[in-house]
Amino acid sequence: MINTEREVRDVGAVVHAVRILRYLAASATPHGVATIARETTISPSSCFAILRTLTRLRFVAFDTTAKTYALGLGVAEIAASFAGFGLAEAIHPDLDRLARKHGVPLVLWRVTGDGHLVAADRAHGGAVVRVDVPPGLRLPALLGAAGRCVAAALDLEPDELARRFAGLRWQSPPYFAQYCREVALARSRGWAIDAGNAYAGLHVVGAAIVDRAGRPRLAMSGIAIAGQHEPAALERLGDELGRVAATIGAALVPAAGLPVASAGETG
């Protein structure tokens, strides 16, 4: 029998180029080829050849006096185009993929500076019977599955968490002690589940997207009607949501003036 499956393999030079660019992006100062090669575990000859190509393409700037490399204008040009259509559009392909894979609608939330979650995007995933969340819907930032993850990221003092919890409106309220345990669990595994507490009949799985400073900026929720999915399926969704949220968060650099929730805000 002829095996028609082909192994998908990454192009080594492209992987090395991306590794170099990411290293330079994370570095506070320019570096010479020897340092870059050592820190990226790329052979010096390959590293030099890639850096020379990236320099010609303006993705890297070379200081002829100090013999060091830094990010070039080519990166800024691409970043400017990327920023033009915003984070929601950039994240949407992942949102749609997860919705289709797990068979649940997914919602992307923006964490606002006044202590709310605002629906920024959604993906239905082809589900015939589903809950529809309209864009712009506002919920308290600590409510539900995503809210537990936001609370975990904020790491509030117990008294402050209790104060904000007391202001939340649930259809089937959890005890505060239970909520605290679930917040702690969300902190350790990267996702949380709300089994009918916020809204009766809905099981919601959520994960928060935090920036490099650990501040919650966005969140994702998968919304399932109770009984449609086995607990193990929801756990698989949670695991993948947590991984995707961590990947997205690693690209979010803290920036002044961005509205994000803080420990002192009310929900």
Task: Describe the model.
The longest helix is centred in the C-terminal third of the chain and has 20 residues. By secondary structure, the chain is of the alpha+beta class. The strands form two sheets. It has a six-stranded antiparallel sheet with strand order 5-4-3-8-7-6. The protein has a two-stranded antiparallel sheet with strand order 1-2. It is elongated. It has two domains: 68 residues, Winged helix-like DNA-binding domain superfamily/Winged helix DNA-binding domain (Arc Repressor Mutant, subunit A, Orthogonal Bundle), CATH 1.10.10.10; 166 residues, GAF domain (Beta-Lactamase, 2-Layer Sandwich), CATH 3.30.450. Helix 1 crosses helix 3. The protein has nine helices and eight strands. The N terminus and C terminus are likely disordered.
pLDDT < 50 runs, ≥5 residues: 1-5, 255-267
Count every beta strand, where a strand is a DSSP E run of 2 or more residues: 8
Question: What is the overall pLDDT average?
Answer: 87
CATH superfamily of the largest domain: GAF domain
Q: What is the topology, as strand order, of the major beta sheet?
A: 5-4-3-8-7-6
Helix content: 40-55%
| Annotation field: number of helices | 9
Radius of gyration of CA atoms, rounded to a whole number: 22 Å
Largest sheet: 6 strands, antiparallel
Find the structural class using helix and strand composition. Answer: alpha+beta
Question: How far apart are the termini?
Answer: 62 Å
The 3D shape can be described as elongated
- And the CATH topology of the largest domain? Beta-Lactamase
Q: How many structural domains does the protein architecture include?
A: 2
CATH first level of the largest domain: which class? Alpha Beta
Q: Note the beta-strand portion.
A: 15-25%
